[in-house]
Design the sequence.
């Protein structure tokens, strides 16, 4: 029973997903039909929200509240499920990103005539996998969460079955994802062989008791595990699937992939490497250093030549994985908290940016070239101003949360003596200014031709969600100190000594070979 209490957020989401699927199977009505079934009222309408969308939003909010409720609980060090501030911080990012994606995807589903039940059920199941992934303290549970997340997103990527690009993106993502999962499983098997346990905390104790560099089995296991996670976070040179998958997937799914999938995989990598395998830092630190350098340089250079805004943001997403890896290399309390802060800011900005992209693109995503943004700032002032804030935050301009996040990552790198990483972060951010500000130039300094596509006025709910994203980005940039301090407290390694009654997750003795 205690394990069920610890997994309460995941249980809430799973029950909601099953309810949506069963309702679609037994209640045949227009509300469950194509898209939001006219309930969304079209791109500019203000119609009622579909039942599936309401259930999804309420269940995500319920899962978030359940995560906060578990904040005062604790678990033994070698428990399968984490009950700590790290998990709550990750769940906050994941639930917040999912809420934004679901609320902003209503117009897209209605416009493209897509079925709402399957979309929302898959979003919930993918979110369950993400939350299991960030809460896992056991290698087997880690893999279960990873695969549940991945399989759901494979299907979401190919959700527009009549679109060949969507099907191609789904197939590419599935093949590369299966390949990455094989690396993860093999790495876990070798780690088990080296430590004699699947419990990460127990493995950390055994690694700390013996020199890690001399154990070839352990080195190979960490290496394969790192390669598998590098595929999931799209770190160079394991990123080649990301631009095609992001470009071909439905834009709300692209937003979900660029935020939720990346956030969950990165938080799991951050916990496993810097906390559980911190005693073997000499094994993985050099490899992650090179991953960070390459992931900051290569996608920023490639993005310079992109004429498709969606594909440009895909390469931008890869580059931001490099910035986040700087916090992993720092392997300090400040590095972890700075990474979590930057990840939260990146999630909000990316969700808002892709929402504007699919709104401007129109039916069939026909208008997502950079030239299609000419004069947008004057034709649709609200959309233009919001996109301006998002692009400035991605570039790292003050006073946005993106600027503050990069500043804290720089400080963590300098404190750890990683001056070369700090210099690379600054220089690649300067390179990124070009392709971000190019879109801003098109919006405000080039006139749109007479036959240019003008996006319809956004509905009030869309404006509210976009406005919330803008407010969060500006508040995070203006008042970051308290947020960073809270993150550092939440991510402190020391577990609580006083577990709440009835909230302790019992740990079983790990098997020994």
Sequence:
């Amino acid at each position: 029973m205690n394990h069920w209490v610890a997994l309460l957020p995941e249980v809430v989401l799973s029950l909601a997903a099953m309810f949506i699927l069963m309702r679609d199977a037994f209640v045949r009505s227009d509300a469950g039909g194509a898209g939001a079934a006219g309930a969304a009222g079209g791109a500019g309408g203000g119609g009622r929200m579909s039942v599936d969308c309401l259930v999804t939003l309420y269940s995500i909010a319920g899962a978030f509240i359940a995560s906060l409720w578990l904040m005062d609980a604790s678990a033994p060090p070698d428990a399968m499920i984490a009950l700590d501030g790290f998990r709550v911080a990750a769940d906050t990012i994941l639930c917040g990103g999912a809420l934004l994606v679901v609320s902003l995807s209503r117009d897209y589903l209605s416009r493209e005539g897509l079925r709402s039940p399957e979309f929302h059920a898959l979003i919930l199941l993918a979110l369950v996998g993400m939350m299991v992934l960030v809460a896992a303290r056991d290698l087997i549970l880690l893999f279960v969460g990873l695969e549940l997340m991945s399989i759901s997103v494979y299907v979401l990527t190919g959700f527009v079955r009549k679109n060949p690009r969507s099907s191609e993106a789904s197939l590419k993502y599935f093949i590369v994802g299966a390949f990455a999962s094989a690396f993860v499983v093999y790495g876990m098997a070798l780690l088990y062989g080296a430590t004699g346990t699947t419990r990460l905390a127990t493995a950390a104790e055994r690694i700390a008791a013996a020199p890690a560099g001399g154990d070839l089995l352990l080195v190979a296991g960490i290496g394969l595990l790192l390669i598998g996670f590098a595929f999931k976070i799209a770190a160079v040179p394991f990123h080649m699937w990301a631009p095609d998958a992001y470009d071909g997937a439905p834009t709300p799914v692209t937003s979900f992939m660029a935020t939720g999938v990346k956030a969950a995989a990165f938080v799991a990598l951050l916990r496993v490497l810097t906390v559980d395998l911190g005693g073997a830092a000499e094994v993985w630190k050099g490899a992650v250093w090179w991953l960070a350098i390459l992931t900051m340089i290569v996608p920023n250079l490639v993005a310079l030549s992109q004429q498709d805004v969606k594909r440009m943001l895909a390469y931008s997403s890869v580059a931001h994985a490099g910035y986040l890896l700087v916090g992993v290399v720092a392997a300090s309390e400040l590095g972890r908290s700075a990474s979590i802060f930057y990840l939260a800011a990146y999630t909000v900005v990316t969700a808002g940016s892709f929402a504007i992209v699919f709104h401007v693109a129109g039916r069939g995503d026909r208008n997502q070239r950079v030239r299609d943004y000419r004069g947008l700032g004057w034709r649709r002032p609200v959309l233009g101003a919001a996109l301006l804030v998002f692009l400035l935050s991605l570039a790292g301009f003050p006073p946005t949360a993106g600027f503050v996040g990069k500043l804290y990552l720089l400080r963590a790198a300098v404190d750890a003596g990683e001056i070369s990483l700090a210099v690379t972060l600054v220089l690649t951010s300067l390179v990124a200014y070009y392709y971000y500000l190019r879109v801003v130039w098109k919006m405000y300094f080039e006139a749109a031709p007479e036959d240019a596509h003008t996006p319809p006025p956004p509905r009030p709910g869309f404006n509210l969600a976009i406005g919330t994203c803008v407010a969060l980005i500006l508040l995070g940039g203006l008042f970051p100190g308290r947020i960073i301090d809270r993150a550092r407290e939440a991510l402190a390694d020391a577990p609580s000594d006083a577990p709440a009654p009835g909230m302790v997750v019992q740990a079983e003795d790990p098997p020994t070979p």
About this structure: Residues 30-47, 493-513 have pLDDT under 50 and may be disordered. The first helix runs from residue 2 to 6. Residues 328 and 362 are 39 Å apart (CA to CA).
